[in-house]
Amino acid sequence: MNTEILGVILMYVMVIALAIPLGRYIGKIFNYENTWLDKIFNPLDKLFFKLSGIDPTVEMNWKQHLTALLTINAIWFIISMLVLTNMSWLPLNPDANPSMSGDLAFNTSVSFVTNTNLQHYSGESGLSYLGQLILMLWQFISAGTGIAICAVVFIAMKERTATTLGNFYSLFVRSCTRILLPIAFVVAIILVFNGSPMTFEGKDTMVTLQGDTVQVSRGPVAAFVAPKQIGTNGGGFYGPNSTHPLENPNYLTNIIETVSISLIPIAMVFAMGYVLRRRKLAWTIYGVMTLGFLLLVIPSIMNEMNGNPAIEKMGIAQSYGSMEGKEIRFGSAASAYWAIKTTCTSNGSVNAMHDSMTPLTGMFTMLGMMINSFYGGVGVGFLNFYIFIILAVFVSGLMVGRTPEFLGKKIEAKEMKIAMVIALLHPLLILAGTAISSFLYAGNPAEYAGWLANPGNHGFSEMLYEFSSSSANNGSGFEGLGDNTPFWNIACGIVMLLARYLPIIGPVAIAGILASKKYIPESNGTLKTDTSTFGLMVFAVIAIVAALSFFPALTLGPIAEYFSLY
Amino acid sequence: MKSNIFPAIKLTFVCLVFFMGIYTLAVYGIAQFAPNQGKGEIISSNGNTYYSNVGQSFTDDKYFISRPSAVGYNAAGSGGSNKGPSNPDYLAEVQARIDTFLIHNPGIDKSEIPSDLVTASGSGLDPNLSVQAAKVQVKRIAKIRGLAEGNVLQLIVSNTEQPLFGLFGTEKINLLKLNIALDKLK
pLDDT averaged over chain A? Predict the structure, then answer.
């Protein structure tokens, strides 16, 4: 069998083999059960709380959880702005890189605090090492925020009536120290021993074998890349992210980095199964997510391996497939696999340039972000899926004439209203943003000529992708877009803020309201939510609500480009 | 809100010290045991040192040439062309690269040229070539350097890196190592 395909199969098998035990471990952490790492982490967590003056045993209701989350995120944003606009004179700047402009710092700070990691700068010239390290901090703790708030929803889904749902700070610190830190540390060590730099020295100048003088940008790369991959962050140390040979040196590191992308998102589903003692529900959800993921990834791999038809016509060999924007050491199968993984999970790191992929692969990457819940981001991916479950319960309840109930709680008008608003927010942000930018561009193509690197339908796709990526808190891009302008910095910044916090507030509110309702034990009249029938129902809701909203826009972009090429 | 502000500031500061400081230093400490103390993998030849992972530009006909690059293989920066598959300017550029290659390599049929040789990588620093991209240059190199074609072909075979464990990923050649070996071939 083709070794490129075997590599892809290995990566999928590895991730599921690791995600099942990890999900169990994460479940134990949320349940405050004993684990074998307690000896290290119990004293460490105690130290965290002692120094911060926080009592981790105080119970919070859902509103208090959200207040705590929003407050601490606001503080991170302020610190980030201060550092990024003053990097030039702060320490750890061996390459004498400049500070960021206000609008770029706004975009970057929002981007990293919201776990999006859209980058309108290039790491080599746009950040000092201090800037890189502060962004690395957000890569840990913004991911910790998502995991912690997802744990709150798990706790709310338990079979009981309750108004208090644990302590936010406690869940947050446990997520950071006990889940993210150990995995990041292992990944960083593997990278260091495979040739990723971990140094504080600046650029190195050297003469090549042919006699050209060039420079090589270095830095604390290995430490930075690990949390980038595992926390569905995706903001690269270097401009072109994990295509860079120092950020992702060989096929082995590519396997490790690819597995890291979806490890925690998948493990969170199994963690839910453990916390609620509903393994069958976890497998149903995992099944729906995997079905969606496979439907996107298989055609993408086929398209990239088949190559670009316009180049085919020139009469050269395309045995490696479509190679523009791709690295030989990964090949087109592993590049297409990464592209779909990273867009389905809201990671946004890349190991090949999405802008140069064949039209349908470009469309599938966008669909991954538009749906944003086939695995999804750490924690928040499950929250997005939760909204679709609520919608599916309601729709199927109406279809069979039963009261819509989910895990023993009645779903009523208020919860449905919240769920509808959140489900419609994502298409609204993406389509309105794309409409405004297209309107501006079409009105004055000369003034905005720097925006698009490609003409026609593909240029439209570049704008559609940028807003999809911002609204999905993904962070990858069709990087041909000239996006470091006040318009893109501010527009994408606003979209990222709305698209991060409203889809957290909505599901937490629904879960919090449901938790306080009377628990109704399951009976013969209850709609079963852990069956494959219900799974298909959820899949249908996702296809109708999410995917179809975007069909007209996709027709103008990648689908039209497809028909012009094939 | 108010009761949250000071604990949140203090907790942020603790996280900063731990995740930005202690974690980074721990990885840095372990990096001191890695090849070249974590400053990137190096190979030496004739007293010069090169980064073995970072691609170099080879445009001279006497070397195996490298893939096109959007950043000219200057690793002070990095990046891809970001050209879309249907962009007419881009397709014209690829056609021009094919034509140039054919002029420099007489006797080669264009169906022998693999696409990686006329397309730019994502990083602009791709250190590799496909095996076919090296083989298609054998005729030219042998002629310029006055070597037997069989010897140059043998060099390619001995520099071919198999997929991981022979099973996973692509077969490839590290172009820098190949060209260093080529310089040593008599």
Answer: 92
Q: Note whether B114 and B23 are same-domain residues.
A: no
B149 CB neighbour count, 10 Å cutoff: 12
Q: What is the mean pLDDT of residues A406-421?
A: 92
Closest CA–CA distance from residue A322 to any residue of chain B (Å): 8
Residue of A nearest to B39 (CA): A197
Rg (Cα) of chain A, in Å, rounded? 23
Statement to judge: residues B50 and B9 lie in one domain: no
Same-domain status, B11 and B98: no
Does residue B1 surpass a pLDDT of 60? no
Domain interval for residue B14:
1-33
Structurally, chain B folds into a number of domains equal to 2
The pLDDT, as a whole number, for residue A529 is 86
Question: Which one is predicted more confidently, A536 or B44?
Answer: A536
Residue A96, pLDDT score = 87
Q: Which of A222, A245, A353 sits opposite B80 (nearest CB)?
A: A353
Please give the residue of chain A at the shortest CA–CA distance from B120.
A324
Whether residue B19 sits in one domain with residue B48? no
Confidence (pLDDT) at A337: 95
Query: What are the residue ranges spanned by the domains of chain A?
Result: 3-565
Best residue in A82, A83, A125, A214 for a mutation probing chain B (most B CBs within 10 Å): A214
Distance of CA A166 to the CA centre of its chain: 26
Residue B176 contacts A where some CB pair is shorter than 8 Å: yes
Q: How confident is the model at residue B138 (pLDDT cuts 50, 70, 90)?
A: very high
**ipTM metric:** 0.94
| Residues found in chain A | 566
Q: What residues in B contact A226, CB-CB < 8 Å?
A: 27
pLDDT of residue B94: 94
Instruction: List Cβ neighbours of A121 (8 Å cut-off, separation of 6 or more).
Output: A100, A104, A108, A127, A484
CA distances from A400 to A131, A389, A392, B154, B179 (A): 56, 16, 12, 72, 71
Q: How far is A397 from chain B (nearest CA, A)?
A: 39
Domain shared by B17 and B55, yes or no: no
Task: Tell me if chain A has a CB within 8 Å of the CB of B184.
Answer: no
In chain B, which residues have their Cβ closer than 8 Å to the Cβ of A217? 75-78
The per-residue pLDDT for A426 is 93
Say if residue B151 is in the same domain as residue B72: yes
Tokens representing A557? 């972009």
Q: Hey, what are A339's tokens? A: 């592209």
Vertex A159: Cα angle to A154 and A161 (nearest 5): 100
Q: Report the residue of B22, B23, B108 to disrupt the A interface, i.e. the one with the largest count of A CBs within 10 Å.
A: B23
- Interface residue B160 vs chain A (CB under 8 A): no
Q: Please tell me if residue B22 touches chain A, with a CB cutoff of 8 Å.
A: no
The whole-number average pLDDT for the span A280-290 is: 94
CB contact under 8 Å between A319 and B38, yes or no, is no
